[in-house]
User: Fold these one by one.
Assistant:
Number 1:
Amino acid sequence: MSALDPLPPATTPDATPAATPDATPAATPDATPDAAPDAGEVSALHGRGRYESATAGWLGTLRRYVLVTKPRIIELLLITTVPSMVVAAGGWPGTWRVAATLLGGTLSAGSANAINNHLDRDIDRIMDRTSGRPTASDQIPPGAALRLGLVLGVVGFAWLALLVNLAAALMATSAILFYVFVYTLGLKRRTSQAVVIGGAAGCAPVLTGWVAVPGASLADPTPWLLFAILFWWQPPHFWALAIKYREDYAKAGLPMLPVIAGVAETTRQIWLYSWLLLSIVLLYAVGAGPTADVGPLFVVTAGALTIGWLWLAWQLRRDRTVKAAMRLFIWSTSWLALVFTAAAVDAVL
């Protein structure tokens, strides 16, 4: 395949100057040129997305407000909450407690996402992938997403504090504040490491689910190992997606790793982080503490899934194509659900 041409300088979004990427990239890109996406892959990058809708009336309005909360991301986060609760309880912690925790977590995650959509509407207008978002396309009134996010945050805190416990409410709300102030306002437009550092907010559902169980303590190493699995899962997962939307991020002036370091270096980082993820999984298997008696089910399931991950990461490192990146991205999504499910089932057996 032919090499990708160098990206043009990133354009400045609206009136807000684009942040300057880090002076020192995570690593120096390989001398090997980046592989170009296939023509079919390029044409499929920006098709008609889930944001565009011809639905009118109150149903269409409701749909647009739901989209502002990024429900697909919420689904991804919540699949780690229930397994964390099961591991903490050593069994099923009770249907009402699980349902109350999930609803409170959904409200809190929706709050963070709605506020993020409001703050990022200028760059969302520039990127093809996000230009159809209700906040970017003015399908909802200016400031409406911000008000929605604030209301959801308050309601989520009150719900968790009253119906679960104060610790879960504080944990979920701290994740909102971290996501908004540290990731969205502090890091996203300034450094390629935003995905790594800001990923801590995405790990909060693990800890929220853990402290939602009566008697569960954060002094136990188990929740922190589950946190670490999710924390080190996020960079290679999102970097694989960023390879596909590299030009989009560059156009918006966002210093994502494929933009500032190139696809070759990004695939190298994904390869290294994949081995780090394997080491965290193995550490959980041998050091999960008294709460989780890790057995062969988790070891075999997580081990096999991670070997598959490493194989796909190596193929991406070798081929450096959008197709290979998306294969890893899809695998990593299933990997997360299956590994956390294995941890929960293993804790019960």
Note: The two ends are 50 Å apart (CA to CA).
Number 2:
Amino acid sequence: MPVVAALVGWFTNWLAIQMSFYPVQFVGLGPIGWQGVIPRKAEKMAHICIDRTLRRFGDLNEIYRQLEPEKIVLQIVSRVGPRMDEYIDEVMYELQPVLWDNLPLFVRNRIYRWGREQLPQRIESLVEDFGDDLNDLVDLKALLSHELESHPDLMNRIFQQAGSAELRSVITRGALIGGLLGAFVAPLWSHYPEPWLLPVAGLVVGFLTNWIAINLIFRPLRPRRILFWRVQGLFLRRQPEISDVWARLVAEELITVEKVADAMIDGRHGDRTRAIIQKHLRPLLDHSLVMKLTAQVTVGMTGYTDLKKAINQKAVLATHDVFSDPRFNHERAPVVAKALAEQMKALGPEEFQDILRPAFREEELQLMLVGGVLGLLAGALQFLVLNGLAG
């Protein structure tokens, strides 16, 4: 009997964890069905995490400063500079292909040279301006919502990697707790072999093991000494390690330089981002009398306005190319991860629990009831087997 109870405890805890992660998408008919607790609550957890960490850190602008804007300037210049002539050619061939082909070579070379000379200064002021306004330009919650909607398994991977040791421990302890409860039921059954006893005992074992398992993850909040043991919630006890893994995965998968740049340009405040780009690129033409006169003589006043618009559009496309560089994203991710991890480690146990617990709090009763029903079925099966053997 203790062996069966241990198996019930092990299986119900294993099933509860599987139900926490899977299925990633809702499976069922109408309102009847199931979706993994964590994928269903992923957006809520991510928002709480970012709110907690940014509240302590300051804001997104502060994280941007940690990214070392001078390295962002170097990245842009190193990627755009060598292609400056190509970008100018593309703009001019789109607007005035015949005229550009027939323009004297020394004039074209002067335009190329002017663009290359002005680029570092323009980019430096542009990056500085972005750093001052990043918190207003990027809707971080919208970015997180979009990414988690596109990749519903992402929070699963974060939880599984961050808490793999704790999840294994919960399953193992389920077997131990089930075995102890079974050892308590065995003498009761020998004295009172009532038909209802084993199913009810199975219900209690299944329900209690799931309840204890969930509470082992989050309780007690602070370390307590019970006899010879120092006890604390499994996730809370490893807050520093879990913070490092969580922050690394968020920085590599959610808040990357590329995704933040895309959110700036294509997000809710994209028009404002484009206006900042335009403000900093306009001097490329307007601040050089030779360049301005050359452009106006060759393409006319209307063409000159179209030229500036085309340059702005080309700059936006170039920004996408620059920040999609995997190497640059890989290099900057540890900076974001370090900033997030430091703030997560500084959270008190209550705040740290609030990042993880919302995923389970609303579903705890359902998970425990599933464990109870499975335990009841196991108890009923055990009763039938024992009665068959007795017969």
Note: The chain has a mean pLDDT of 76.
Number 3:
Amino acid sequence: MEQVELRLKGHVDTRWSDWLGGLAFNHTAEGETVLTGTVCDQSALLGIINKLPDLGIRLLSVKTAKIDNIKDNERGEQSVRLSKISQVEG
């Protein structure tokens, strides 16, 4: 699993959320849309990115962080840790 943040030019209508992998939408005062959420792997992320031109949307940046599941030995519970943060700007 990976935590992702896609920064897009313009305010994208939230009705596209399901089509764009169910990511959460946040509209900024700078006229951008920030999509955040998790994807199962890089191919899922690429699938979302490849849909953007169909909507006439310009991708400004991508940030990803790998999510590692760690078991807590004392309680047997799982916790989540982010590692390997990557950023690409275009």
Note: The chain has one domain: 2-89.
